Amino acid sequence: MIKAEDFETVAETTRPHRMQRIVVVALIAVLMVLPLWVYPVLLMKLMCFALFASAFNLLLGYGGLLSFGHAAFFGGAAYVTAHALKVWELTPELAILAGVVAALVLGLAIGLLAIRRQGIYFAMVTLALAQMFYFFCLQVPFTEGEDGIQGFSRGHLFGLIDLSDSTVLYYAVAAVFVASVFAIWRIVHSPYGMILQAIRENEQRAISLGYSVQRYKLGAFVMSAGFAGLAGGLKALLFQFATLTDVNWHMSGEVILMTLIGGIGSIAGPIVGAALVVSLQNYLATTGFPVTTALGATFILCVLLFRRGIVGELRHRLPAARSKK
Amino acid sequence: MTTVTRALLASVVCGALAAGAQAEPYRIGVLTDMSGMNYDLSGKGSEVAARMAVEDFGGTLLGEQIEVIVGDHQNKPDVGSTLARRWIDEQNVVAVVDLPTSSVALAVQEITRQSDTALLISTGGSSELTGASCSPSTAQWTWDTYALANGTGRAMTLEGDKTWFFLTVDYTFGNALEADTTAAVEAAGGTVVGSVTHPRETSDFSSYLLQAQGSGADVIALANASGDTMTALKQAEEFGVTALGQDIAGMLLFLTDVHGVGLDIAKNLTLTTAFYWDMNEETRAWSERFAERMDGKMPTMVHAGVYSAVSNYLKAAEKSGQAKSGTQVMDTMRDMDIDDFFNHNAYLRKDGRVVHDMYLVQVKTPEESKGPWDYYKVLRTIPGDEAFRPIEQSACPLLDR
């Protein structure tokens, strides 16, 4: 957890340190060449989940709001994107946009109801509404029930670039991913983000300072839903299907797991957590070792040994990072 | 002399390269659920069945080793399709087998269609797989929802159960089961006197069961799956449904489900299956070999289906000489007579459906059962052409008409 004394002034934080910039540029360069060694579909999937976890972290890590229903936005957007590609035959960018808009609207509806409560009640309200959305998806004909929306083509980006080639798609997904993470970073370090963190630390004080706390929270909720929707839309485009798995409460649980393992309240944390969980799911799949057991054990280890999550613990332990803070 | 040396060198290098490329064995990928709710009915048993089929075939295909690898798709379509893609791209997997969970099966079918890899579906039962989404490299081997609904509906009506009442789980799967069964019941001269829908994962069926009892129908049909079927069965037993003279029909039940709830609860239940281990000498012989490797567990229809699918695939691949092309292997298979302990005089249709006999069975009472796994008595053999969806009704675009 970031403590109040960790806060820097807005002017300082909006300008990244030179060191940080170098690291970020180096990471982007690695991202560009990584498909030479790692299976690109897996990398793209990883980026989708990393973005999903980052969106979740925007709400939990910076807003202090634990939502148990983020799968509704992720899976809902995936359905809308898939439907837009398959039935409306939109171009991929418009289809994803449709998915994001759907997630924003859903986020606004659920957020308006949920932010009236705090703590466990907030979590339960989001869970309940997300479950309602799950049963809605289970029954409406356009989602095609258990089968899911399947077998549509990825189409041409802007009507020009053919996305059926994995390499082309990889760079498109990578671009969206980097831009979105940057946008989240920018939101967190904006005056808005500062106030959001202030509300997380002490809501009463924020109210007494004259901030309209409910609006800030709703804003964070809707933005988080929007980014989750973007991740869901990308995933639907990547795999060419949208199914009930993405709206199920297991998915809401998984994103919490990713974020907590990686470490909340940092930009890198959810990305590392998502990478770990997705890689475990993929590599353990062929080993015969039960995946759920491995994930559960990892989570227990995290809670017992490094409560700040992997990235949080590293930042805490490494003196260099601490002195900079 | 130099030219000769060069030629020799070149040939040695080429030979080495070719040998290097060929050293990769053909792999058969069993893609199943190793950690979730389908583990018992498919899971480990499907792996064992695939390995038995490869061993019985002699372990080599077109002169190369055959290796069986297993993947746990965790019932997640994204995990399943990533795995299948990686297997095909990087590990020389020539056939993907089993596929529980219809969303995963459909997702993987898109991958195998693109790469022209054989897809042998045994646990996946969505009739969509051989309907609008059909693929030329797929064989849906064991069952589908249409066959179970239609088989039970038709056969039971012909046996004298004329009036039906449905307990239907309220989403696409349940509604399709109800519609298919209704069609079969009405075609056989029966009537549906009512139906009630319930949400998925219902814990209390009492009000639905009272309605079903009150309807006075001959049969109460459970158009739902796994957990819901179990709960409904247990509560129907408490309500004394069968004791009062009504029959219960399970639309989707596996041998392991019956094993799970026990004969006290499942007794007298009627259902359709593609296979039962204790039908004849052949099925017993194979099933006992299977049970030896599975700590005494008898095979479900999908386990037997996996064995049959893999062994017939290997025969067809050997005959066609083209293991790499799923479509060519399937075309070869279409010309073959599929005949083994699992299915006699079966054939593979153009839409990917394997047509074989199904069996209407009734679960024995605890008194009738002579020992562990002695659960079914076969009431009636349903000829394949009657059991499965007629090809004229298939929405498969591969059928030219």
From TrEMBL, chain A:
* InterPro entries in the cross-refs: ABC_transp_permease (IPR001851), LivM-like (IPR043428)
TM stretches of this protein: 21-39, 59-82, 94-114, 120-138, 168-188, 218-243, 255-277, 283-306
Q: Among its keywords, does the record have Metal-binding?
A: no
Give membrane topology per the record: Multi-pass membrane protein
Name the predominant localization: membrane
Which keywords label this protein? Cell membrane, Membrane, Transmembrane, Transmembrane helix
Record Pfam families: BPD_transp_2
Of the GO CC terms on this record, one is: plasma membrane
Q: Which GO terms describe its molecular function?
A: branched-chain amino acid transmembrane transporter activity
Where is this protein found?
A: Cell membrane
Q: What is this protein called?
A: Branched-chain amino acid transport system permease protein
Q: To which species is this protein native?
A: Sagittula marina
TrEMBL record, chain B:
Biological processes per GO annotation = amino acid transport
Q: Does the keyword Transport apply?
A: yes
Could you tell me what this protein is called?
A: Branched-chain amino acid transport system substrate-binding protein
Keyword Transport attached:
yes
Q: Which family does it belong to?
A: Belongs to the leucine-binding protein family.
Q: What is the lineage of its organism?
A: Bacteria, Pseudomonadati, Pseudomonadota, Alphaproteobacteria, Rhodobacterales
* Signal peptide feature range: 1-23
Provide the Leucine-binding protein domain boundaries: 25-364
- Species of provenance: Sagittula marina
Superkingdom: Bacteria
Q: A Pfam family in this protein? A: Peripla_BP_6
Q: Which UniProt keywords apply?
A: Amino-acid transport, Signal, Transport
